[in-house]
Amino acid sequence: MHAMSYVSLAIYFLAMLGIGLFAYRQSTSDMSGYILGGRQVSPHVTALSAGASDMSGWMLMGLPGAMFLLGYETMYIAAGLLLGALVNYAVVAPKLRVYTEVADDALTIPEFFSKRFGSHDRGVRIISAVIIVLFFTLYTSAGLVAGGKLFESAFGLDYQLGLVITLGVVVSYTLLGGFLAVSMTDFVQGCIMFVALVLVPIVAFMQFDGVGDMQRAAYESIPTFDQAINDTTLLAVISSLAWGLGYFGQPHIIVRFMAIRSVKDIKTARNIGMSWMTVTIIGALATGLVGVAYANKFGLKVGDPETIFIVFSEILFHPVISGFLMAAILAAIMSTISSQLLVSASSLTEDIYRLKAGRAATDQETVKIGRYGVAGVAFVALLLSLDSSNSILSLVSNAWAGFGAAFGPLVLFSLYKANLTHKAAIGGIVAGAATVLFWIYAPVLADGQALSSVIYEIIPGFIVSSVVIWLICQFDEAPEQAVQDTFANAQRVLAEQQ
What we know:
mainly alpha; 20 helices; globular
């Protein structure tokens, strides 16, 4: 790439580190500040932080690549994600913001699960923390693989060097500023992603003589819109739409709702977040659609469809803009990695270390351990990502389903069912995670294929987890009165703040 592209990237990296240093000076003196930004995050930062940490590199690489290969049926995934995010803002965000504060100021999702049933019930907290650390270590490695491949394909650098650069910048600002740094950098990264996903498809479309010309070229290798609607099976539609179920159980996304300044700010965050998400998803789909048309009309050879955004960035733009667009991909990758590192570290410190250390552990001590946790998880993820043949899409898809099935139903039951019990919570987590793993890996079909080849594993996982929680609640003893009083108090506080 041109030297000016590297200058653009260098400026981006320095900006991220500068934000981390600013956040370090603002809010890292205690665990509430380090993990949740003191619950004083603005709705604008909350919205773009949630969106940027959610979308990751798949927004600029995976979704355009799917559209390039499959065509309009990819829109079902986009529709499922938009619907899931909207429902998440409506049914989870307000209650979770209030309930986690009322429940003795719970700072993490596992801590909330535990305090939901009384602080003496630690089983659900430890199990949740272990699942979070394990899945997010794999999830983080998938993001690092994407970063390494980006540096390798776009900049001609060694794959391992790309891993180190990506991880080095992310770990630096996460170590420095904690949640505030992660949220503020996510805000900037979300803005970069927004501009990039508007700019690239528009400039690429300008190479055609109108919509008809573009469509004729695209239809040489993908089905028309009508064909895609008629040929897509019902199970395929359900599987694609079911991606939206995952939102209720993604710790790195719903933790944003815990940190927002107030319940009244959630409506503003929802409007900003959904507008951002709608535009960026349409931009990602348009990039893939215009990409396949461009390749057909102009004879462009695209070895890997997931690199179409990179290809457009290199052939259609000035080197300075090209560097900015590469930074957009890095922004998408880094925003998710940083969120995953912080949630993993907070689970290690608050849900495992503090339980072992007891009341003797000070806030300053746990913040220090939290930073060690960020470095530790990052190091393990780096080791797992050294093999460039790792399947990014497979890891992300499986982790999304695992979190969605293990935690999604429990989050909803915790917020809406007063007599939810500790045993039901543990049962739901284990049943959801086990079902997803069975669906992915058990070769039970006649040809040795797993059940995930028939329908996306989050659907059976979510259903089984929900049924198990409901059944155990029917036969288990009702929770103690203090637990029910806390639930009632949360409902009262929510009514007052809305």
